[in-house]
Every structure is written in structure tokens, then in C-alpha cells.
């Protein structure tokens, strides 16, 4: 049966968005600290039960301590999530209305999906459910949100108002910043990411968002034009498969050859530059 201190520490750790390994390290450090505090109080003449209760009372409320640790690990993330959700909702409404009244043909499905992901980000920022793996949910939602707005930026690019693609780009940048903050920040454990690992992961997260977004856009457009699935569409998935393979190779190469890892990281970034040149160079020339 777990002691009162163990249950107390578990409640604190449950309020953080750490990975399983990070929570184990945090749990061990907090438990050792409280056990030492209990030992000192017992030396002062208190019984074990009394010392345990007083040690927990001196330490503070579980929820408040957990929130303070969370804020220290992910500073300003809650505020950034608020900003991202509100900005995204405003952009969605503006883009939908402009497409409806300017072009006469708005994309209702994109609006519904965009509003749903924006609202869910707002929900995750406001509500702190200890029953969810929040880190996984937040990262998954942010990846999906970035893909939605990459697609939305492509849709709004057809309008003569250049402010919409620019606004979509700013939303994506804020989205990526939150994704980096959530996925690359680690509690000080043996598995914490070093500087080179963080750079490699950041480059590949960015590349993956653009490559997968472009792949989905091309495959979706092909389905609309052809009217059904064709085996040729599998070729459009090749860039995404190459990116996955390069990502895995970079992570493995980091342990032995950093130069090789960074060299491989350049390949998907060059692919992104190619996508951007194809998309925007003709407009800049004419």
C-alpha cells in the first residue's frame, strides 16, 4: 500500500505535461525531498504520521505545486495557446467571409475543421484534465492545426488579398513555436535532449509539416480532378516517405557522426525551398 507521501507526490506529478520518463524522474526527486523533510521533523520529536502530514502541509497544495512546476517547465505556453486559438478563430471567420462574399464559394468543410481544432486548443489551454496525456494531445492537435492552416493558406492564396496568406503564415509560425516549446523542452533527466538533438528535431518537425501538408494537398487535388483513387497517387507520397527515412537516419547518425546528421537535415529543407519557389516565384516574376 502506498504511503501518504507517495500519493501526495503522484497528485503533483499528475498535474504536469511531462513524458512518462520525465514524470518518473520528477516523482523520484520530489519524493526524496519530502522524505528528507519528514525525517527532519521526526528528529524534532514528531511521530512518523505527524511528520508526514506536516511535511506535506509545509510543501503546499498538490494542484498549485503541480501548476508551478508546469509553468516553470513550459513558460508562457498557456498564454501562447490562448493567442493561437483566438487568432485562429478570427482568421477562420475572416477567411470564410471573404471567400464567401469575394469569390461566392466558401470552403465550409475547412471552416468546420479549422474551428474545431482552434476550439480544442482553447479547451486544452483552459481546462487541465489530469486524466489525459496532455503532452501527446497538445502535440497531435498542434500538428493537425498546422496542416489545416497550411491548407487554408493555399486556399486563400487564390484571393487578391495578400493579407490572408500572410496571416495564415503567422498562425503557422506561432503554431510551430508552441510545438517546439511542448515537444523539445524536457525535465532534467538522463533522456533530456541535448542542443544538437533539439536542432535536428526542430528542423524535421518544420520540414514534416510542410512536406506532409504539400503531399495531402496534391493527393486531395488529384482525387478531385481524377474523381477517384489511382495507383499513380502513391508516387505523391514518396516525399513524405523519404522525409521519414531521413528523419530516422538523422537521429541514428547523431550518436556517431553529427556532420552527417546535419547534412541529411539539409535535404528536406531544400525540398521545402523548392515547394515555396514553385508556389510563389511565378507570382513574383509576373
TrEMBL record:
The keyword Transmembrane helix applies. Signal peptide: none annotated. The chain crosses the membrane at residues 80-101, 107-125, 137-155, 161-181, 202-226, 232-249, 261-281. The keyword Transmembrane helix applies. Keywords: Membrane, Transmembrane, Transmembrane helix. InterPro entries: Perm_prefix_1 (IPR047928). This is Uncharacterized protein. It comes from Peribacillus saganii.
Amino acid at each position: 500500500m502506498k504511503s501518504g507521501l507517495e500519493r501526495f507526490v503522484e497528485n503533483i506529478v499528475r498535474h504536469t505535461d511531462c513524458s512518462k520518463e520525465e514524470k518518473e524522474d520528477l516523482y523520484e526527486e520530489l519524493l526524496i525531498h519530502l522524505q528528507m523533510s519528514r525525517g527532519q521533523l521526526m528528529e524534532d520529536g514528531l511521530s512518523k504520521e505527524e511528520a508526514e502530514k506536516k511535511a506535506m502541509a509545509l510543501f503546499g497544495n498538490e494542484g498549485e505545486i503541480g501548476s508551478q512546476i508546469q509553468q516553470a517547465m513550459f513558460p508562457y505556453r498557456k498564454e501562447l495557446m490562448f493567442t493561437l486559438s483566438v487568432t485562429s478563430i478570427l482568421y477562420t471567420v475572416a477567411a470564410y467571409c471573404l471567400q464567401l462574399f469575394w469569390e461566392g464559394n466558401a470552403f465550409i468543410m475547412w471552416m468546420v475543421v479549422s474551428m474545431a481544432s482552434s476550439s480544442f486548443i482553447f479547451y486544452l489551454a483552459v481546462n487541465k484534465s489530469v486524466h489525459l496525456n496532455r503532452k501527446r494531445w497538445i502535440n497531435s492537435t498542434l500538428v493537425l492545426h498546422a496542416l489545416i492552416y497550411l491548407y487554408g493558406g493555399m486556399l486563400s492564396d487564390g484571393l487578391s488579398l495578400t493579407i490572408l496568406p500572410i496571416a495564415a503564415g503567422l498562425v503557422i509560425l506561432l503554431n510551430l513555436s508552441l510545438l517546439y516549446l511542448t515537444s523539445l523542452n524536457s525535465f532534467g533527466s538522463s533522456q533530456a535532449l541535448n542542443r544538437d538533438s533539439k536542432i535536428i528535431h526542430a528542423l524535421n518537425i518544420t520540414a514534416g509539416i510542410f512536406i506532409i501538408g504539400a503531399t495531402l494537398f496534391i493527393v486531395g487535388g488529384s482525387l478531385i480532378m481524377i474523381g477517384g483513387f489511382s495507383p499513380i497517387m502513391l508516387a505523391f507520397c514518396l516525399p513524405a516517405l523519404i522525409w521519414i527515412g531521413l528523419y530516422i537516419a538523422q537521429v541514428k547518425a547523431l550518436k556517431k557522426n553529427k556532420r552527417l546528421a546535419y547534412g541529411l537535415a539539409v535535404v528536406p529543407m531544400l525540398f521545402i525551398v523548392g515547394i515555396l519557389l514553385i508556389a510563389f516565384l511565378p507570382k513574383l516574376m509576373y
